[in-house]
Here is the input.
Amino acid sequence: MVTDEVRHAPILLPGIPSRNPLRFSFHTVCLIFVALTGLSRAGLLLVLMADPVADRALRKRTHPVLLPPVAIRLRLLGGVLILAAILAIGWIEVARATQFLSGDHMIAITAHRAGSARAPENTIAALRTAIADGADDVEIDVQETAEGHVVMLHDTDLRRVAGLARSVWDMRLDEIQALDVGSWFSPAFREAQIPTLAEFAAVARGRVGLNVELKNNGRGEDLAARVVAVLRDSKTSDQAVISSLDLGLLREVRQIAPALKVGLIVATGIGNLHRLDVNFFALSLRLATPAVIREIHATGREVHVWTLDDEASIARAMLAGADNIITSDTLLGLRMRRWFLELSEAQRTLLRIELSVLGFARLRGSDPSEL
Here is the structure.
């Protein structure tokens, strides 16, 4: 469901005019002209550095020299050829990047940590907010308590969300659920508790997809099997996927429940994609280039990109071909998807050329510990 707030909110994307295609085209042409000017200046400097005779000849001239018509035509032809080459490179890269995207390619919006921008992360309150906002999926983090219950928690201890310097594996479920994990976010959430995966899945059932990240804290006993059991018991297996930084945990899930989709979270580098038995890759923005996404799509896998909380980074991932945007701000993600879907194919192509040839503003790298 798309709310009125999503439907009517303006999109202000730095450097990417989204409403007027003519304005965008002029913007792109200006950038190309600046690039060509820089190339011509650089070429002149190279000539002067390599040819002292040319340098002396230029300094001795006191009057402008009128070029013959043939030379003028040759210069114009050279400029046109350079411009054509730049555009051709952009068109080729765009064609390669989009060859695996169908015309109805849909981009899913996933609420990071169940939607941590407007409610405490990994809580039922965050889940209900994400559902009300219209998220397609929610990404959540799970670990085991001392007696083996699967609970929702990102960090290995409760210091950040509850002010308690104790590890989750050293505490019983009743101790953990007695804690207030909402006041740190806002006094309005002082009743928030850490839910079990079973409690969370019961609310999510039939309402939103689940992306369950298995956290390897070094103390887990049977996390993969217990998570699969909860999903089966809650009848949410058909709306869930499993992700992790730990390929070993994903292999365990694959052995226990071959039908469940699994995804590897990647932050530093990608090896031989064909050898990994996963259904999707969750990439940091730094790795989610058009070339990498194109390579992953060629293997038949999806690409999720995390954690994108500003317009420019979401736009970049969408233009690069991402299948799923993981964001803490569901409403922002939905607004950007609406902006992207309203673009014509010509506008998307021009934006992809700009991304391929000229690039956007420098973007910060991502830290996997923040996922």
The longest strand covers residues 137-144. Residues 21-50 form the longest helix (30 residues).
